[in-house]
Amino acid sequence: MITNTELEYKGDLYPTKIVSFEHEVDSISFHTDNSVILKVTVLRDSLIRFRFTTKGYFSNDFSYAIDKSHSHGYNFLEISEVEDYYQIKTSKVKCRIQKIDMRLSIYDLEDNIILEDELGFHWEESYEYGGNIVKMSKASKDGECFYGLGDKATQLNLKGKRLENFATDQYAFQKDQEPLYKVVPFYIGLHNKKSYGIFFDNTFRTYFDFCHERRNVTSFWAEGGEMNYYFIYGPEMQDVVTTYTHLTGKPELPPLWALGYHQCKWSYYPESNLKEVAAKFRELKIPCDALYLDIDYMEGFRCFTWNKEYFQDPKRMVAELAEDGFKTVVIIDPGIKIDKEYSVYKEALENDYFCKRADGPYMKGKVWPGECNFPDYTNPSVREWWAGLFKELISEIGVKGVWNDMNEPAVMEVPNKTFPMDVRHDYDGNPCSHRKAHNIYGTQMARATYHGVKRFAYPKRPFVITRSAYAGAQRYTSSWTGDNVATWEHLWIANIQVQRMSISGMGFTGSDIGGFAEQPSGELYARWIQLGVFHPFCRTHSSGDHGDQEPWAFDEEVIDITRKFVNLRYQLLPYLYTMFWQYIEEGIPMLKPLVYFDQEDIHTHYRNDEFIFGNQILVCPILEPNSLGRRMYIPRGQWYNYWTNDDIKGGKEVWVDTKFDQIPIFVKAGAVIPKYPVQQYVGELEFDELILEIYFKEGKEKSVVYEDAQDGYDYKKGRYSFLSFQTTGKEKELIIQLHKEGKYDTPYSKYKINLIGLPFKINAIEVDNVKIPFEYQLYQESNYLLVDKGFTELHIIGE
């Protein structure tokens, strides 16, 4: 690693004493007598960037991760000097930089330590490649916990782990295997009930050690580039995650159908096979919005072509599927077959768009089509060309979405499974080798794909999904967790991976339901679908080599369970859509691990299984075979069992009975949960009522519901509906207040209200201070109230 190991004897170098500093607006630069410069930039009162150079000057400041469209600003900045250190103070934190060795420490305003250097910044000259191996070590506090880091197949709390970031095609990966497909060098620290974050924006191969080598030392380092990291102060984990998500960017709102259930397989062909799958979904009344075509739809695996033997008239087929509510999504890989008769290859060759080796020849590697060259997506001209290639697929044939695979980039039949490190990249005018560009290659491919799909799908919204990604990729694409396996262990891994991705800025993520490799039992598939419907991206996908994995590949009981839970997802679409709105507007993660939900409760710090779906639904999957119940932790507060409506006080671990067709689901007291009627696909039905399930709570609780036209861009012009509900429960009264924002008029006219957990019998109901006729016996029989959607205050009055 970096200390007390063989690296120490290779000549670690350190900053010496500070000899000068300069202050310019939001930045302070400190210079040492051995030419190290530390540039501290205050972006917000709680967001500070630390950038080091060892050569006396900085290279061009460029990042693919940072969202440059988002502005920052601080309220207060003061620089002072004492005998031993300089101090930078904002309205949230104090940062002290030692004069003798440039080590730094960060405190809150009450002088409680948040984060401090152990050895701090140091480096080792890389004689093999040039430049530096840059290193940072921090002192870790007793009891400190660590979270985040994106796509990792390990415990949610990273304490005691060492992890590696290098985007890798890791087929059939195992628990704790490193590295995986995505690179998100962002972690959250928590100690003394206070949270902070570190984002190490370095695209070289990076490593993180969370007290693995030494008990009270956390460190991170990279094989090249700069020591360039952002410190984010909470003190709430919610603040850390939201600030990081603002820093690296948020997606635009997807079309609502993209949040439906999707079905995929390697591969559905010919057309008759795809049509059979579509017809079976509708016959069994299992909702489904999208069907995927894997590489076999292409002619010889050539991107942007169709195999006319399997799909004789793609435009007609896509249109016929659309008539029955199915959107077609197709795969596009980065490997372009070397074929002089292939138009895409010829265009790229003529324009010099392929990646080159150090000595000039094009990078050549074997992928599905055979020998291929690979576009350099770090070149803006290549991205623009690539985007234009989607015209036929999207605007002419009618494909609705694109998924990018093999973009780590993955190369077959080579030891390291990817490009040689001497491959050259444009890097948006900052030429570099593949050592620097590897981790962002997949993101730049997804970026180019996104701009192409968006251009030709307009005025509808684009849908893109990628396997490989770097921090900030969420601005362009959704993702899935790669080639998992049909095992119970992988069900456990999927649960944690998607939670971790959610608090790492990449919320629109899911796993291959049922496992990509091998074949799940009916029980495993059922338990996986029960979890998968609570993931933002919801898709069954499998390798055809291992058998069928459609819901009807199993017995009737599994079909019924699949239908039940996919129906539940479609009912909860307005709730899920609202989660997404809060994600893109406020940077609030859609899934929340219990530690995020209540970091002050130490019992949440090592919980893996339970998570909060949105703001008010607690989900705990069944992760072992033959289970008709499990122990789980109920967070503090009052909760209702979704299946029984029994209430329970949280803050404790309990045993929860379940059935094969259930998993533990609880709803927060006071919540207003919106529901649609079950549809076979988004937009199938016109309905005149929005269901509101309202769970009684003594006290106040706020809930929100976001809706718009479900596609298109009118929502950006204010044509949306944002409902804020506040429930106030008293001993013999429930008050429901409603405030509406936005210019969108929802197509329904009434709210169908189901009141759950009322501690009293209803005597009267008032809508906007006007009593309405009401017979409690009728309410008991129908279990709902119908109220016009224009109300502002509803009083339920007890006897």
UniProtKB/TrEMBL annotation:
Record domain Glycosyl hydrolase family 31 C-terminal: where: 587-673
Boundaries of every Glycoside hydrolase family 31 N-terminal domain copy: 38-209
Protein name: DUF4968 domain-containing protein
Keyword Hydrolase belongs to the record: yes
Domain called DUF5110: residue spans: 689-757
Membrane-spanning residues: none
GO biological process, one term: carbohydrate metabolic process
Cited PANTHER family: ALPHA-GLUCOSIDASE
UniProt signal peptide: none
